[in-house]
What does this fold into?
Amino acid sequence: MFHAKLNEGILIKKLIDAIKDLVSDINLDISAIGISLQAMDSSHVALVTLNLSAEGFEEYRCDKSMTLGISIANLAKVLRCGGNEDSLTLSCEDEPSKLKIRFENNSKFIFIIKKIKIYIYRIEKKC
It folds into this structure.
């Protein structure tokens, strides 16, 4: 099982928004030490590398390392549903096919997106 909560969800929104014009699909590598991604733009000019340490999250749990293939454009659209003051929780099961995204704010409004289909694939590196 994977579960990560960030009280300042706007940080993830800004990160995804910053890279959405560079790369279209990413592989999120999730492990006990944190979340990482490395992706190349379509013209193979820019390389995006991101490492989010588990210590940076208010809550973090990863029982089994996994890779989630996600469309950045679709993820950015979903993240726009949350407010700037909302906390953000990402979670999925051990054999992920869906990513659960939860927004929660101080007024206890909870918005849960339960069924985002995750397509598992590998982006091959060309030399």
Summary: The radius of gyration is 14 Å.
